[in-house]
Design goal:
The chain is an alpha/beta fold. The chain has one domain: Metallo-beta-lactamase, Chain A (4-Layer Sandwich). The protein has 8 helices and 19 strands.
């Protein structure tokens, strides 16, 4: 009798799926929030837990960026930040925290440890940061540590100028792009010698939800990418890569980008931060890349080095009469560039909803354009009743 009941229940379940009854599908949701060339990423995990990576800019932009983060928080339906990961202590990544903390409770603070670049602008922010975590949970992480969350495997692959020594599951293959790698002696953006800055301290995250893989390394540097992926690629391949350092050529080497072979890249750039030709050639030339989505059109790339407007989330408050074809040369590099265009009005995020079978959907908040990337056939479960989008 019990076996018969089990059989009837199973048939009813299959009939419900075949009949089109709505099925609850838990997703890993990511909001890439526009904080104008800074960083703020909100994750809502299948368990309902929330993770925020970085908190945007400080100073005059703090209230603006907190408003934008809270808009994503409200859309995601979360009541608090369970885990705040601060990749490193630069103002465009942590400057907005004091303001944000007045808007929403934060349960746990995660970082790489002491700041290696103290200064008059960042010191007051970090004093407030220390006050906040003294009343909550504070955790200093090192490579190969895990974030204590449910439903996903959230592993730190870099922190405190160190990287993981052991390959992730399924990784460890020889990386052919190491042979042509050249270390940078100076930052190609600022012209300053590379060295022990907060960028090198970045806390990098590898997130696995079933068959879906995501990688974000903060402002991890070009030279460190070699340390992580050469001579063997310890990361393996990923479905989604959030470009390092806002899509600048001081990161995003072939040794990393071409080795991890993302299907989709998200770029948290600003109008004149990130998207330079040197970086875009590497990002857009990555093997198996299907699309790159960016928060802004980059004047530093021009029409020559960009993506279709459908994949760009934000425009300027005062649109230009014509978008230049050629990349703009930044001020101080041989030309007197006009002031950077402002964007303090309505801001739009890029949202990703990932399924455990490896499929995911990316949506542009500005125009509603959405594209679904089907699960890879080799990783699709045998018993899968989800509809498969066809491209």
């Amino acid at each position: 009798m019990r076996a018969a009941l089990v059989y009837v229940s199973a048939v009813a379940l299959l009939a419900g799926v075949a009949g089109g009854q709505p099925q609850t599908v838990k997703t890993l949701d990511l909001y890439l929030i526009d904080v104008e060339g800074g960083n703020a990423q909100l994750y809502r995990l299948p368990s309902g837990e929330s993770v925020l990576i970085d908190s945007g800019n400080g100073g005059a932009a703090a209230a603006r960026d907190a408003d934008r983060i809270m808009a994503a928080v409200n859309d995601a339906g979360v009541a608090r930040i369970d885990h705040l990961i601060t990749t490193h202590f630069h103002g465009d990544h942590v400057g907005g925290l004091p303001e944000l903390a007045t808007r929403i409770p934060i349960r746990e603070f995660v970082d790489h440890g002491p700041n290696v670049q103290p200064g008059p602008q960042i010191d007051p922010v970090l004093a407030r940061y220390a006050d906040l975590y003294s009343k909550a949970v504070h955790r200093v992480v090192k490579p190969d540590d895990k974030l204590a969350v449910n439903d996903v495997d959230w592993r730190f692959v870099s922190a405190g100028a160190e990287v993981i020594k052991t390959a992730l599951r399924g990784a460890g293959q020889s990386n052919p792009h190491c042979r042509t790698f050249t270390r940078q002696q100076v930052n190609p953006v600022s012209g300053a010698p590379v060295g022990n800055t907060e960028d090198e301290q970045s806390v990098g995250s590898h997130v696995r939800f079933g068959e879906f893989r995501l990688l974000y390394l903060g402002d991890f540097t070009w030279n460190q990418e070699f340390d992580l992926t050469c001579p063997a690629n310890r990361i393996g391949t990923v479905d989604l890569l959030v470009a390092s350092r806002h899509g600048q050529p001081s990161s995003n080497s072939e040794a990393l980008v071409h080795a991890v072979q993302p299907r989709v890249i998200l770029m948290n750039n600003g109008p004149r931060k990130g998207g330079q030709p040197q970086a875009m050639k590497i990002l857009l030339g990555s093997p198996h890349l299907e699309n790159l989505w960016s928060l802004h059109f980059s004047e530093l790339g021009g029409q020559e080095y960009t993506v279709p407007g459908l994949f760009i989330a934000n425009t300027f408050d005062q649109p230009q009469a014509a978008v230049p074809v050629a990349p703009m040369v930044p001020a101080g590099r041989g030309t007197d560039a006009p002031p950077a265009p402002t964007h303090n009005g309505k801001a739009y995020w890029i949202k990703v909803s990932a399924r455990s079978d490896g499929g995911f959907t990316v949506t542009n908040g500005r125009n509603g354009f959405s594209k679904t990337y089907a699960a890879k056939p080799s990783s699709r479960p045998i018993a899968n009743f989800d509809s498969v989008s066809r491209r």
